[in-house]
Amino acid sequence: MRQLARLITLFTALTGLLLAAGLPAHAFPQAAFPLTSSGNRGTDVVALQHLLAAHGRTVTVDGVFGTGTRSATVSFQQSKGLTADGIVGPATWSALAVTVRQGDNGPAVKALQALLNAKRSAGLTVDGAFGPATHTAVRTFQSHAGIGVDGVAGPTTWKNLLWHYENINFGAGTMCAQSPDGNANAHWATAGAVGQLEAAATAFATTGNGRLPVGDAGFEHGGDIPGHASHETGMDIDVWPIRTDSAQCTAARITWQSTAYDRAATRRLVQEIRAKAPGHIDLIFFNDPQLIAEGLTTSYPNHDNHLHIRYR
Hints:
The chain is mainly α. It has helices spanning 2-20, 43-54, 67-79, 90-96, 107-120, 132-145, 155-163, 191-205, 263-275, 289-293, and strands at residues 166-167, 175-177, 188-189, 212-214, 236-239, 281-285, 307-311.
């Protein structure tokens, strides 16, 4: 009993030291800088563009990794002695992500604010001014991520924030949330996957074929998701095929064999998904033999009633 008491006392003292130092007991060991390259879209690209501007590069902040962003990236990599391949990986992110704190101003703060808004719904004005609201949002995220809580966005905060998944935005009216397996909160994915899907949904909405029904993606920090072993790394998203009455968000779920299945509209959807993520679609599972013959989808068991998009 005496030995147990000593162990409890030691544990309590250690916990107190950790809390006093602002170091939570748990962190996300899988956190890592993402790979971002030509063809990507989304919040991580917005952050990249702001950070390039912070380092003196002229680049349009539009969330699309196009030729201008690639040129600016290559120029920055050359200036830092990095491999100048236009691919933003750990070394390039580390060089870009300057430490910012309360009182700072500029594009790097805009990058931070954009990430906090998209990934943790911080509700910040993206004005480049690191004021009290941004300081609080940084501290809240640090606590959430299980890293040192000091309100300063340094290397560890940038890495965890860029790694953190993003919730799909259903507020734009172009998509509806569908979780047939009961995974109500499984609409998180990497910023790239989310940005590319949202762009495809926006383009598809102009066709007049209704909204895009989105099934399971993943959970906020990845990990096991019931019934979807592949949906653990934030790169896989399920969507449903389109109906002839455009009621895929309100009517019964269908398969490609159903009389209500609209092949032409589903084909257009797949085309938009691929067009909005050039070079970043690994595969799309869906068993419509015509779309398979056209090279748009790939056959896989149990994929008659949904399209499984795997981004890369």
